[in-house]
Amino acid sequence: MTGAYTEVVVKRKATPSSYAAKAALILGIFVFIGCWLTMANTFGSISIFLAIGMVIVTVVLWPSFNVVYEYVYCDGQIDFDKISGGEKRKRMLRVDLDNCEIMAPENSSELNAHKSNKQLVEKDFSSLEPNAKKYMLVASSEKERVRVIFEPSEEMLELAKQKAPRKVLLDGESGKPYIQ
């Protein structure tokens, strides 16, 4: 055991679908309140309970739209965790660098064959910022072969390079990183 450890936290940029979901929740509240105010019949009295229900659902779901990814490198393994609302953590993936085929900058020419491979399951744990320094990791996980997009720190890259020097390409390096 080398004792190599580092972690990186990346805040995910809001997506158009998350904005649409937030708008739908708020619209639902206004629709049910509007029905309650304008209709005096049976649906009007039911709609106030539906509006209260929508408020409760909105309060419960709203924090889950704030997503943070945490990458933890520990002795040759990288754990990808998703943290929703600042408190709910879920392990998304664990990759052992022994099972890694290649790790390189996303725009590296060495990744061209892997980018077009339809058999790889793509997992994007990046911030979705267009100018972020993204890396792609191709590996076999417990269940499947994956293509992971993430934003490691310089320290994480150096530790990964020490663990698997032929499989990890740093920014600016070229050539075949491994021999098959």
Report what the structure shows:
This protein has 180 residues and is an alpha+beta fold. It is built from four helices and eight strands. A four-stranded antiparallel sheet has the order 1-2-3-4, with helices on one face. The chain starts with a strand and ends in a 17-residue tail after the last helix. 22% of the residues are buried.
> Which sheet architecture does the biggest sheet show?
4 strands, antiparallel
If you compute it from the alpha carbons, what radius of gyration comes out, rounded to the nearest whole angstrom?
22 Å
Number of strands: 8
Give helix and strand order, one letter per element, not per position: EHHEEEEHEEEH
- In DSSP terms, counting alpha (H) and pi (I) runs of 4 or more, how many helices? 4
Structural class: alpha+beta
Uncertain runs: none
The termini sit apart by 27 Å
Strand content: 25-35%
Strand order of the largest sheet: 1-2-3-4
Give helix % range.
Answer: 25-40%
**Mean of residue pLDDT values:** 88
Shape from CA axes? Answer: elongated
Which helices and strands, and how do they pair?
Elements: E1 5-11, H1 16-38, H2 42-61, E2 67-74, E3 77-84, E4 88-96, E5 100-105, H3 112-115, E6 121-124, E7 135-140, E8 145-150, H4 154-163
Helix pairs in contact: 1-2
